[in-house]
Amino acid sequence: MKSINPATGEVRRTFDELSDAELEQRLARAAETFPAWRRVPFAERSRLMAAAGALLVAEKEKLGRLLTLEMGKTLASAVAEVEKCASACRYYAEHAERHLADVDLSSGDLRAWVRHLPLGPVLAVMPWNFPFWQVFRFAAPALMAGNVGLLKHASNVPECALAIEDVFRRAGFPAGAFQTLLIGSKRVSQVIADGRVVAVTLTGSDAAGQQVAREAGEALKKVVLELGGSDPFVVMPSADLEQAVKTGVTARMINNGQSCIAAKRFVVHAAIYDRFVERYVERVKALRVGDPLLPETDVGPLSTEAGLRQVEQQVDDSVKAGARCLWGGRRIEGRGFFYAPTVLADIPPAAPAFREEVFGPVALLFRARDLDDAIRIANDTPYGLGSSVWTHDAAERARFVDEFEAGQTFVNAMVASDPRIPFGGVKRSGFGRELARLGILEFVNQKTVLVKDAAAQPARPEAATE
């Protein structure tokens, strides 16, 4: 495995994959650790998770630099990502016990409740675009629930994968509570099939999700999938146009355009379309592309040469199909994997950009005749992860909230993940939820308990209902 600096194309470090014997050792350690870890009281789990969060805060500059060097995000966004991981650790350290408390089902002479119990070793197959955040939003709730974690990270971020394992180790977690598996994608099937692994979560492409879901299904194992997105960003006439334009540029170019929940398709009402486009392109032209370690840089490189080639091909083929390129539309020559911030308009249905997720700094503009047409265009995608609408009309807001085919709808705000609210999608964007209470409930046994004893009561307080 190679750690390559996307800003220069240079190989930083190389790593050997685990041998079969080393992989077996880690799987055995996970299985051996689980029985003791599940019995660790919440107070102790909370203390350890808070310690992991504190380490992240203390080392955010060092860890942020690692993220930048290994996958190319700007240094400011990398440090912010590490801080966000710390917030997830704090959130679950504070709220996990309440989220997992017994739910009393007693009625009359019936004494029954639901108890939430851990499942065992859970495999997380994670992507490179948010190398720390994607992992911690799985690991914090999974470990606090009493499970143990096995991380198969993307092969181009091995240093990040090992650094995360090191954070949990130094925070005081048992050695088998969270382990990184340096293996290639072809060996994921072997781990899923292993009887000691009880569940799988994956964040990645819909193709990867199909494969993991198929293999987990064959093994009858629980799976959570967070897959691709082609999120709509709808702007209506009542919106604050300047704020919508400003936020829209940020929402598309965040993480160098490599985010599942980035705004990708800008659906703008015809009454304000021309004004929106003029101001949007003006702001995109002002973006500074360059070394992600420099504070003045707005957009850094794509993470890999393969990713750069794919975006280049999608844009070129879309223009050939009839789309108009209003700005950008080219790779930036020189070292590294840079692609110019790009704006496409008048995109025909035959163009790749009309249906495919473009994972790079490419904004797609669509003109909507009216409210119904805006909803139609927004939903005309195989994906359904996030959605954003900009309107101050209450009736319009109600329509979008009810009719957007997406796992999340943000009104007058950019879609973003937050430990306090559930995260996930519908359609080809996957199923299941991460974060908040719904996220921690994904990998527990929601066991129904009935006791034929009038004096019996749940041993733990009733869970909060939010």
Automatic annotation (TrEMBL):
Gene3D superfamilies: Aldehyde Dehydrogenase, Chain A, domain 1, Aldehyde Dehydrogenase, Chain A, domain 2. InterPro entries: Ald_DH/histidinol_DH, Ald_DH_C, Ald_DH_N, Aldehyde_DH_dom, ALDH_GabD1-like, GABD/Sad-like. Keywords: NADP, Oxidoreductase. Residues 2-449 form the Aldehyde dehydrogenase domain. Belongs to the aldehyde dehydrogenase family. This is Succinate-semialdehyde dehydrogenase. The lineage of its organism: Bacteria, Pseudomonadati, Myxococcota, Myxococcia, Myxococcales.
